[in-house]
Write a structure and sequence with these properties.
The chain is mainly alpha-helical. The protein is about 70% helix and about 0% strand.
């Protein structure tokens, strides 16, 4: 993708951190997650338990 591996790793960490907080993002985020058939609260728990599996599901 033309970027350094460190940049990709930093981006992945940022995504995982944000997904851990999805239950605190409010109703708009909850609706967005429902569109992809994931409950926001469950998303945060999934990231903590199995980050790679959660991202695959997402």
């Amino acid at each position: 993708m033309g970027r350094m591996p460190e940049e990709d790793a930093s981006a992945a960490v940022a995504i995982l951190q944000r997904l851990q907080l999805t239950d605190k993002l409010g109703p708009k985020a909850e609706r967005a997650f429902r569109k992809v058939e994931i409950r926001a609260k469950v998303s945060g728990e999934m990231i903590i338990e199995d980050a790679q599996g959660a991202l695959s599901k997402f």
